[in-house]
Amino acid sequence: MTSTPRSEPAPKVVLSEDEWRDKLTPAEYAVLRQAGTERPFTGEYTDTETEGVYECRACGAELFRSSEKFPSHCGWPSFFDPADSDAVILRSDDSLGMRRVEVLCASCLSHLGHVFEGEGYPTPTDQRYCINSISLRLVPTT
């Protein structure tokens, strides 16, 4: 099962909280560094079909590709697999009175969203990486 949390390696990008605050907007900081969630259906990439690579907005690491993005109609961009299995880290998240699996950027440990399994989406992995748009930056291939 791919969404089993694993131990976290040391991040490649390390900044102080003050440096993160200077680098990110308040909304970006709230999601990426404080594990917040943007409101559903408000993110810029929720319904985009532009081909390209989705990078971490905090550090620029490649996280997802448009070829793995699918229309989940859940209010956030959804992917069935990361660009590379080492691009993200999965961490147990028992907040809000439920058991979930948090998705973090492996490069800078910024919060991206959560991954869910067994929801019945017709994807090759039966997984939905539910990712905040504000955690991503799309680099179009054209």
UniProtKB/TrEMBL annotation:
Gene3D superfamilies: Peptide methionine sulfoxide reductase (2.170.150.20). The keyword Zinc applies. Its EC number is 1.8.4.12. It holds the Pfam family SelR. Residues 17-141 form the MsrB domain. GO terms for molecular function: metal ion binding; peptide-methionine (R)-S-oxide reductase activity. It catalyses: L-methionyl-[protein] + [thioredoxin]-disulfide + H2O = L-methionyl-(R)-S-oxide-[protein] + [thioredoxin]-dithiol. One of its GO terms (cellular component) is cytoplasm. Keywords: Metal-binding, Oxidoreductase, Zinc. Its cofactor is Zn(2+). GO terms for biological process: protein repair; response to oxidative stress. It is an enzyme of class 1 (oxidoreductase). This is peptide-methionine (R)-S-oxide reductase. It comes from Rhodococcus coprophilus.
